[in-house]
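EI: anyone free to look at a 392-residue chain?
SC: sure, send it
EI:
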Amino acid sequence: MIGSVINSWVEQFSDNFQWSNAMLVCKGMSPFGCVSMNDLTRISIELRKVEVTSENWKDIWCNEANINFKKAKLAEKEKKFQTSGLYYLRAGNYFYTGERFIPPGEEKLELSKKAFNCYHSGLKKKYPEIEFIELPYEDTSLPGLFYPAKNNSKPAPTIIIFNGMDNCKEMSILFAGLEFSNRGYNVLAIDGPGQGESLRLRGINARYDYEVVGTLAYDWARDRSDVDERKIAIIGYSFGGYYASRIAAFEKRFAAGISLTAGHWDLHEFQRETLAKAIKNGKSIAQSNFQFQWVVGSKTSEDALEKSKKFSTKVIANKIKIPFLVTHGENDKIIPVINAKKLYDAIPESTIKKLKIFSAIDGGCEHAHVDDRQVGINYAADWLTSIFNSMD
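SC: here you go
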């Protein structure tokens, strides 16, 4: 009986993993006041009535987004700015989720613009202390959010967080930033190449050598007077688990690193299998079949497969020498839990390292701990605090 209850909450659409996973990501944001379980229930009911298509998915999510957008505008007109911010954040999440399965093009671009406009309006009203920053990158820049530490003397320890393939910095600053800031940490959340706003609005594609971005982020943070440069850590979740591992392996100035979900041990093999599954049954995979190809900027699936060879953790794990935490959910249906054990085992024994596999009893046992994000973040914060305390 207990198992069936858990499955009904996690697997909203038992015959459609794409929709279930995307819905679960939104459910996982509910503790942070940027989605409503009432809204999500209404969305789920409507989705069950329609044929499984990306257009139906988009229309139903965007309808709910527009309802919240109108509420935000009304509250704003009435000078109820905190309430307005609440509805803007919900609208942003719903627009962002609605565009998820729409292929790259004008429609996706317009929905992305709506999502980020709402996200930013919501953050400015709800959390005015958050700074909107630009990280210089090549001949352009990467957008980021800086949440200063609360209740801490300056300079303060700092985390730099990179998202997964389908997430954005606005989600990161809420589900990770709120907790870490309350604990006295500065938080810098960045949409790196191939992520969030950088990909959708600026056309900046992913790169395998994310240490380049990690170095830029470290230098930006280090130069701030409110940052303790001895205590800057890197965190990545979902696909960002690879990015965090890669950065930790090559940018040794970080004091510690955390993969909230290990990256793919062999991404080429995973992408090859995913492509085969997509051809057979697209509903069985988490992303749309265009997702990785779009993220890396490939015109063909063959080229994307070739690029995927360089994104694997197996080629860099033995170079990680800074203290490093690997967490993973035992029921992860996207990145198998064995990848976390492989990553942990490959990190040299001389390194301070920790592996935590979250069970159903722990909570946070799904991919990137989306079934209980608070548990995953609190564990990471406790571990990092112990590492930093040992440095004093």
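EI: The two ends are 49 Å apart (CA to CA).
SC: 👍
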